[in-house]
């Protein structure tokens, strides 16, 4: 990397590029001297790289802003081009709805104002344009209030830029900035309090539905007012331009051109709650709330930090996570060394966990946050590991109120995190969960973490890791041996089924084909023993052969999958097949999930068969004590929608290729026609057409391009047919899924008059006895917070919300059918609808 690039990239950091100095003023002066000379040689390279640094290292924006201010004193033309580029990029971001670019570029423009590069009045115009668009959007007569998320986002962008330039605006254009703040106050008075119950981490305590609880915009407005009342003084934003103020005042201001905001879609003609919900959902997907605060630590852990400083540090952390997601060690290094003068480990942990648990989905996979937390623990060994442990303990205490999807993510993160630190954890702190009933959320959490750890290591290693709380061994899964019915142990009676299994095993070793094996089964086993025995023998034997490893199992399914397919051609028999797989791998939840996933992948079982199996009585009773049924259901839904997504990508790519082929074919025909119309001499006589060799080549090209076009069109038609079929199957799958949820909930939910909210379910068990009886062994257990039936209902409703929220984009196109066949009717329980509607952002009233 060039020296000037390194200086730009590493400005403000401790490193060899700037010697021993860590003073921002020294860094800026050093960088300015090099960049000033470099502009003369390759200014067209400096400008885009400088902008890229400012956009992708936004916690250094004040440093880049000051540097540009100094360059403005010597090279106004260069800085004018930078300002024009920033404005052009900002308009492109507005037009495309690129939230991150809009937010960062507005912050950058505010910082350029501090360096006397941008005219304050023109920045005020940008603020007022955004504010005007926001006010129009939430106006019920002129706008579309369902798209309030867009309006809120514009106001958040204005407020979030003020910590970087509020003091300068108040000093240079006090009346104008006051007008903007009054406008924001007016906007807050006409917007609706943001209610997004389906996106909250906790069922209670973090509710944003209550008018007494401030939503994110209202909270940020309070923080900004507090900042303004303190004279716009804060600790978290460096102000290096003050060191060069005497020089910068001589710079020439550059004007910003007017901007244009993207208008929201028109409101639906039919203002049904489903249509309003669809538009609200679309708006939230387009303009998602960037952070939802967990507030899991006591206030005294961050009480020394101003409210606005907390917001700024959150912005820094989220920006670093966003722009450095491809290099985790660099990401952790920047997060550990933010340009703030106070400690922020608790705030950093809270922000990271808020991202891991963020609903409907975090910006990145959980694995990324796992690696960043691991690197931060290594970078800050004296402070951060203890803070992370404190966060886990705080979340554990609230686990009964945590959203089910967030809880699953926490289990996956925690088990993976421990695997990176030798599975060390003070389990004795949680050994009391054994005194709770088997359905208690804390007990289930510990059980699921231990089960996931076994997957990441091996049983004996995990048993050793809990030796300080050896009683927790009860929560470990059984050792992962398959439950093979036809083992040839001494003293065990050998039945005819044993002999059939041994014969089938021999045929596999002889590498007989699936067709030959199926003929033998149909002639020898099926007529004599019937379907159930036949299925049991085949499944037990083939799974036993493939039980040594994942590879063995995949090989067996690839080679003899046709046998399963021929035996179980319909959903009823496929449900029986899945029950046999579950019985064989009853001691190994991972292999059960993998086997079923592979079977669906090879189309040996359908997604509907998996849904029916998950909702069979044997699994329904496990909904609140094990994650296994939900994992298998989630895998099936995920694979279904991945297929649809893949088909859509294929269709998009083929459509592009068809256009290219059309153009190539048209060009080839035009070239042939032009050649045919030319006069050429053949043996001294004028003849139409060029020489025969060239004509032959052109005709061949026309044929080939025509064939390529036809082939691509046929491929496109085939893919579109597959997509239509997949969408039709999806509709049937969704109907079955929601009907299954409705049926099992109807059996167990209290009467609607007794339970119209989740809180009603929790209070349902208040008058129960002080002791509960564990149905598994009949022993009295310490009283849980709620009873087993209520916990079953809460868990099932929680997963219903989670699946609906996760696949909302695929559910909306089938909403009319679902409403007609599942969501309407007098017997539909209000809690069932509440769980679905909150996930889809449909208003309940």
Automatic annotation (TrEMBL):
Gene3D superfamilies in the record: 1.25.40.180
A GO biological-process term: 7-methylguanosine mRNA capping
Domain of life per record: Eukaryota
Keywords associated with the record: Coiled coil, Cytoplasm, mRNA capping, mRNA processing, mRNA splicing, Nucleus, RNA-mediated gene silencing
Domain MIF4G: start-end pairs: 8-228
Localisation: Cytoplasm; Nucleus
SMART domains, per database record: MIF4G
Any one cellular-component term (Gene Ontology): cytoplasm
Database matches in Pfam families: MIF4G, MIF4G_like, MIF4G_like_2
Biased composition (Basic and acidic residues): 752-765
Residue numbers spanned by region Disordered: 752-785
GO molecular function: RNA cap binding
Residues in coiled coil: 637-685
Signal peptide stretch: none
Main location, first listed in the record: cytoplasm
InterPro entries: ARM-type_fold, CBP80, MIF4G-like_typ-1, MIF4G-like_typ-2, MIF4G-like_typ-3
Sequence similarity: Belongs to the NCBP1 family.
Subunit structure comment from the entry: Component of the nuclear cap-binding complex (CBC), a heterodimer composed of ABH1/CBP80 and CBP20 that interacts with m7GpppG-capped RNA.
Name listed for the protein in its UniProt record: Nuclear cap-binding protein subunit 1
Species: Brassica campestris
